Amino acid sequence: GPSVMWFRTDLRLADNPALAVAAERPLVALYVLDDGANGARPLGGAARWWLARSLRALAAALAAQGVPLILRRGAAAEAVPAVLRETGAGLLAFNPGETPIDRAAEGAVTAAVAKSLPHVAVSHGVRRSALIHDPASVGGRVFTPFWKHIRAAFVPPPPLPAPDRLAGAAAVRSDALNDWELEPTAPDWAGGLDESWAPGEAGAAKRLADFLDGGLTGYATLRDRPDLDHVSRLSPHLRFGEITPAQLWHAARAAMASGRATSLDVEKFLTELGWREFSYNLLNQRPLLAEANIQPRFDAFPWRQDEASLAAWQRGLTGYPIVDAGMRQLWQTGWMHNRVRMVVASFLVKHLLQDWRAGEAWFWDTLVDADPASNPASWQWVAGCGADAAPYFRIFNPVLQGEKFDPHGDYVRRWVPELTDLPNAVLHRPWTAPPGVLSAAGVTLGESYPAPLVDHAHARARALAAFQTIKAKA
Ligand code: FAD
After folding, report:
1. Mean of the pLDDT values across residues 115-129?
2. Cα 235 to averaged position of ligand 1 atoms, centre (Å)
3. 3-128, which class in CATH?
4. Which residue of 147, 153, 404, 429 pairs with 274 in a disulfide if CB–CB is 3.0 to 4.6 A?
5. 235 lines ligand 1 (CB under 6 A)
6. Is 364 tagged catalytic?
7. For residue 189, is pLDDT > 60?
8. Is 189 a catalytic residue?
9. Is the distance from the beta carbon of residue 370 to the nearest atom of ligand 1 less than 6 Å?
10. Which of the following is catalytic: 78, 267, 338, 418?
């Protein structure tokens, strides 16, 4: 009988080990939207938008070779066996999941198939593609030794090509993608996402090619500059498995071998991929990574309840230009530069004393790359309660961060246009500008742009005092 390829977070044809196996027979492609049915966290709004676009791209690529993409909704342990039964399939193939939830779901599917469809062969785990390392074989709480070990012990195998010929099996009933209502309609807030991204495998490949042609040169130093274009923006493509870390690894190493990139830049880029590996490793050690402090002493931390501050942060109205620029970039494009993510997260947790989980939840809803491992791991890292975390008492000064990493103010002017005419000397600290400078720039603090929500020195002292209350509990 035909094979069923169960796609999950591997929405691509190339470097897809399970698909390579399934493609040896007439093929039915299946995607199951579990939407919380497996105990997984329901996707946030921006990720739902991405998923819809990515599925459409995958369906088109498969349809070009006569393969139907069947969409079903519900628990995978019911949906997958149902499709196997309806198609008369003799083989089920899928790639191993890399989160505890995904592994639980595949365990339930495998058990259901063994029980009710014992003649169906199940192929999974032929080879790992979503991560470079195997979280079950390596542990650790400190990034540097972790990465040293991974870098020495694991070289991802050369990526597999897309299967050169697919044959479609007879289609069975599929949900209509539009009925899943993954994309916003009224209001349609996704215009900025549309302009910023091309979800799908082809979009991912183009993004990588552009990065190799441009941004990678200078990456090691310029990746911290949100005003420049020196990061890959591959994160949502990686998140949905439209491209693999092995593909990135080999492409970057090839650029180095051919002299197009320096080893310094390439090694730094691989190290950032290493943080993704590290985050997945932590998630596997800590399935409740988005809920529970890794350091239990933070359970007693005196977070403030302050809906108004949280809302000002979410809307990019804190009065700190670099923070507001980041939050507006996030809202409009579904993505934020990494340096600015660190600044806005630190501001929420330390200046506003809001529980990191509130920020993590906002990012989960608004990021197109919202990732079950990297998002909570990064929040815990910034908040100081994570593994190998930035210490809580190291408090970013948002003015100095802005002046250092957005030195000409191009980033702030792009996202906070009401400050465009302020001179650089005060752009990151408008409240220090003389009244004449503000009025010449058309800025009225408290009206056209907010006055600072908190004073930095006051907020810093308050955060340190809050930390003192739990410090002893190391
Ligand atoms: P590049 O610099 O081009 O890096 C290449 C790839 O490496 C990225 O696509 C990403 O997959 C990985 N990577 C880079 N930096 C990190 C990092 N610090 N941690 C984990 N992986 C990394 N990344 C997510 O993919 N999803 C998230 O939900 C997410 N939430 C974050 C929340 C906070 C508070 C912070 C501080 C960081 C978060 N990051 C998250 C990590 C990082 O900001 C993004 O991966 C990066 O900005 C994506 O842009 P890029 O693809 O251009 O990165």
Report:
1. 93
2. 6
3. alpha beta
4. 147
5. yes
6. no
7. yes
8. no
9. yes
10. 338
Which atom in ligand 1 lies closest to the alpha carbon of residue 233? 52
Q: Specify whether domain 131-158+200-285 bears CATH 1.25.40.80.
A: yes
Does residue 266 have its Cβ closer than 6 Å to ligand 1? no
The number of residues in the chain equals 474
Which CATH number among 3.40.50.300, 1.10.579.10, 3.30.420.110, 3.40.50.1760 corresponds to the domain 296-469?
A: 1.10.579.10
Measured from the CB, is residue 238 less than 6 Å from ligand 1?
A: yes
Burial class (CB in 10 A: 0-12, 13-18, 19+), 33: buried
Catalytic residue among 272, 397, 418, 431: 272
pLDDT tens digit sequence for 237-261: 999 999 999 999 999 999 999 999 9
Catalytic annotation on 362?
A: no
Question: For the CA atoms of the chain, what is the radius of gyration?
Answer: 24
Q: What is the pLDDT of residues 20-33, one digit of tens each?
A: 999 999 999 999 99
Instruction: Using the atom order of ligand 1, give the atom closest to the CA of residue 359.
Output: 34
Cβ of 357 below 6 Å from ligand 1: no
324 is in an annotated binding site: no
State both tokens at 153: 């012990």
Q: Domain coordinates of the chain in residue numbers?
A: 3-128, 131-158+200-285, 296-469
Annotated binding residue 369: yes
Write down the pTM of the prediction.
0.97
